[in-house]
Specification:
alpha+beta, SH3 type barrels, 107 residues, 39% strand
């Protein structure tokens, strides 16, 4: 079962779903609410801790991964502020559909 973030469809409807690589906080996906230099605010965000079945983050952003059971992707958080974003990659519907169907990784 997935944690349902509190942000509504209305709140995210005009926001871009992006993949963010940070300097030291890892990789995150979510709706880009705000960007100020290297600081980005994502809502309805998940952390990609480990992936399998994609060579690069670019491939994940376009296609998702080919081996979902081996991916470790966190539960959704309502809002996260990342202070050292070094890459912002636009995603496709295919990527979003893949991530929506990957089981939450948690203990």
């Amino acid at each position: 079962m997935h944690y349902e973030c509190k942000n509504t469809e209305e709140e995210i409807k005009d926001l871009e779903y992006v993949l963010i690589r940070t300097y030291s906080a890892g990789v995150h996906v979510g709706y880009l609410k705000e960007r100020n230099g290297q600081e980005v605010t994502l809502i309805n965000s998940r952390r990609i801790w480990k992936w399998d079945g994609a060579a690069t983050l670019s491939q994940i952003a376009m296609e998702g991964c080919k081996n979902p059971p081996e991916c470790k992707i966190s539960m959704c958080v309502d809002k996260i502020i990342l202070t050292q974003a070094i890459e912002i990659i636009s995603t496709t519907k295919r990527c979003k559909d893949f991530l929506d169907n990957v089981e939450e990784w948690k203990v």
